[in-house]
Structure formats: structure tokens, C-alpha cells
Give the backbone structure.
Amino acid sequence: MHVDAHQHFWMYSPAEYEWIDDSMAVLRRNFLPDDLKRELDSNNFQGSVAVQARQTLEETRWLLDLAERSPWILGVVGWVDLRAPDVRSQLKILAQNSKLVGIRHIVQSEPDDRFLLQPAFLRGISALEEFNLAYDILIYTKHLPVAAEFVERFPRQRFVLDHLAKPPIKSGNIDSWAQGISRLGAFPNVFCKLSGLVTEADWHHWQPEQIIPFLDVAFESFGPDRLMIGSDWPVCLVAASYVKTIEVVNNYLLQKKAECQARVFGANAQRFWRLPAR
């Protein structure tokens, strides 16, 4: 089974999605399951994992409702305030829905570069294992050293790094990023999504060859058993169509063994989130 490990849905409104500026005008509309299903079918994906885009419980419940009505949405990575004193109570209620497979916080937008190490946040992370929930790490390259400190504290917690920590593809300054990725990849409980890469390149002039060195580092650091393909649809549309976004990783994988391709395209996602087969 092929699984798109990272995609979003939303009902667009300027107030709720103020980060979508004029350069991203293509994203200023609704993106719903029927829209994605066409892309999945055309690209031989049998399922997906929907990831939160707004930090509200309302959106998490909405995504879970979409997943209930669309069986091919195999899991939802939602949001709760992990710093809240009653975080366990919130998680207990949400985790009753088996489609909730993980939690994410938009750490990349936090003004505190050491946000991941705040005591209240660490307390919330410590509750996730109890409810069989993974955690998505959404950060920039500058946060990688802190992320390593963070995951070191939780050797039994499942983590997945989103978008390869937003690598500097546009500039090509790979060294500092590669060091951080190598350190994070040394933790066996950390997986990584090969997603969000075309949007880190020059949106209008990128070439697949510019992304290959970053994929090389990902494979060296995480190996074929801890990498997953994700489209980051619809955000990817600012730089490429769904098919071109997927082709970057697909073409790279052609040089790998068939079993490696199968793992990255779905088996790793199924194992990491314990997704049901379809």
C-alpha cells in the first residue's frame, strides 16, 4: 500500500490562514478530500495521513470527522495544547478515535528557539506514549540542535521530522543542515518525511538535481527503514503539481532496491503510525 504521509485539508478564510500571502494565491481556496482523492488515485496512492494546519481543537475534530467519512484517510495528526495543565484529559477524549495517530505543534513559528525544551511542553510530550500517539517535529534548520536535545529525553516516544527540517535547497548551503540531520537521525525512534522539499527550492526555477544532495543526506542519516514520502499537498502547489512533487522522490528511488521503494512509499508509514491495511 502506498501512503502519502503528509497532506492538509482546509476551508479557506483570510483570517484563519493569514500566512497564505499574495505569493501563495493558488492556496486561497478550499482543499477537501474529494480534491485529494483524484491526486491519490492518479499517482497510485491508496491512502494518506492528514496533518493539522491550524492550532485549534476544532480543526482536529474536523479532520477526524473527515477521516471517518473517507476511509482512505488512514490517520490524522492533530493538535492539542501540550502545555495545558489538563492535556491528559484532552488526549484521553481525542484518542478514543482510532484515526488520531499523532500530535503536532507549529514550533517553527514560535519566537523562542528553544520552545521544544520548555518544561510545560516536555510534560505534554511525556503524556503521548500513554495514548499511543506519535509526535511530528516541525522546525527550521536552526532548531535541529535543540531537537536533538529534545528527542534524547524521550527514548520510547515515536517522533517524525517533517519536511527534512526545511533544508536550504534554494541557497545550497548544505553543511550545517546536514550535520543537524545526521545527529537527529542517530536516534532510532526518529523517522523523517521526504516532504515539503519543492517549496524550499526556488518555486519558479527549481530543478530535481538541486534536491538530490539533500535526499542523499536523508538516506545516509535515517536509512530506508525510517523515511516516508509525503506530498505536503496543497502547499506544494506553490512550486509544483502533485505529480511533479512526488516524481522528485520517486525518480530518486528508482536507483534503490524494490524493497526500499516499498518501505518509503508506504510500509514505513504503516509501521510508524500502526495504520490499518486497506
User: Anything to note?
Assistant: The mean pLDDT is 97.
